[in-house]
Every structure is written in structure tokens, then in C-alpha cells.
Amino acid sequence: MGGEPGLRECFGLSGWIKIVESCAVFCCLMLHRIGNQGSQIFYAATDQKLDSPDMNYPAEVDAEILGGAVLCMNLVSPFLLLAYAMYGTDRIQSTSLDALFCVVGAGTLIALGGMTCFAWNHANENNNSIGRRDFESAGALGIMLIATGILYFLDFFWVVYRRLLIGDDDDYVY
Description:
By secondary structure, the protein is mostly helical. The chain has helices spanning 13-34, 60-66, 68-87, 89-93, 97-121, 132-166.
């Protein structure tokens, strides 16, 4: 945008993308924590408890560990938005930090959404403890994670494009 950094940096295209990412990741986190009538939806534990030696889906504990990416991105995106306001969008995007967070967030969110959809799609439908509401909530969580990951992936390309436009300015002191 040029000029002095300030709050107006948050309302350019890069800022709006970060705002939408922050809201989407927060919605994913809330779906995970209270999405099933106030109870937690696990990313890959369809029986509503974590069990390492589960024969149906042994990667459920790994999916829960990967779920830490949702919490991480819930913190990173607003702080990058704050950095845009404090230092300017051009200065932040001229480093590789923003692009790195975008690609890592995209990869982990898409992987986690895929694991969630896979686990709940292959859940034992004969289990009486799993109801239709469980499947609907988990499906919404999986699709929301994938959509948010795609948003981060598009942001990655936007940040790289902006970085190419900015070039390697020696004006910034890191």
C-alpha cells in the first residue's frame, strides 16, 4: 500500500484474507470443541474416545496431534494481521515467514480435514453410540477444515505474488 503502516493495512486484500482465515480457523476450532450438541468432535476417533490400538483406524491419535495446527493457525493469523498493522504489509510479505505459515497451514488443515472425512466416512454405522448428528457434525468439521486449508493455499500464492512484486528492497531493516 505504501506510506506509513497503520490500521489501514488490515483492510487491503492481504488483510481481508487474514481476517477471513482467522474467522474460518476459529469456526473450525469451535466445531471441534462444541460442534456435537455441546460435546467434542474428535478429528478421527469416531467412537468419541482416543484409542491407540484401534483396529478400524489406527491413525486417530496422530490426527488429534495434527489437530494442534488448528490452534496454531488460530494464533498465527491474527498476529500476522497485527504485524501488517504495525510494520506494513509489504515489509511482512517481503520476508518468507508469511508464505511459510500459509503453506504449512494449508498442508496441515487439508490433511486434517481429509483424515476427519475419511475416518467418519468409514465409521462403523452399526455402532449404536454413533448417531446421525455425529456424522453430520464431523462432516461439517472435515469440509470446513479442507475449505480453510484451500483458503490458506490461495493466500500462499497471493503472498508469493506480492513478494515477487515487492522484490528485494534493501530499505528494510530486519
